[in-house]
């Protein structure tokens, strides 16, 4: 058995979540008219992978079951982890964190959180870098304004 040292370890919760999403997509594709929106899912680990049982509300036995290969579920979970990692750490956040050193300590966290919000709304990496460069150029003036207390309240 080969050890996969460079691949990230996928937590069990992420595996179950990926198994549920894959199974739900398969059930929706197969049983379009028969499936209701209100279902309960239970996930069991088997030798080959995962088995997801869907039970409609009010039913005693599982209405639908889907068997999934473990490798497919792990690949899906890894892809979701990578996507989440990119969202959590968008392009250039380290540069913005460095520029906050010009601000007073009480302002740093709030400003950085606001910038992350703006970056999350931008659709492409190029737009993110444009925003970051604009903030880097504007930071000295903003820092001066905040440190001297010359900021004006809007009406």
Helix content: 55-70%
Global geometry: elongated
Unreliable sequence segments = 1-7
- Classify the oligomer: single chain
Number of helices: 5
- Count of strand segments: 3
- H and E order: HEEEHHHH
Query: What structural category do the secondary elements indicate?
Result: alpha+beta
Note the beta-strand portion: 5-15%
Q: Largest sheet, if any? A: 3 strands, antiparallel
Strand order of the largest sheet: 1-2-3
Mean pLDDT: 76
Cα distance spanning the termini: 68 Å
Rg is 24 Å
Tell me what you see in this structure.
With 155 residues, the protein is an alpha+beta fold. The chain has helices at 12-30, 70-88, 93-99, 105-121, 125-148, and strands spanning 39-45, 49-56, 64-69. It has a 3-stranded antiparallel β-sheet with strand order 1-2-3. The model is unreliable at 1-7 (pLDDT under 50).
Relevant terms:
alpha+beta; 3-stranded antiparallel sheet; 3 strands; 14% strand; elongated
List the helices and strands and how they pair.
Layout: H1 12-30, E1 39-45, E2 49-56, E3 64-69, H2 70-88, H3 93-99, H4 105-121, H5 125-148
Helix pairs in contact: 1-2, 3-5
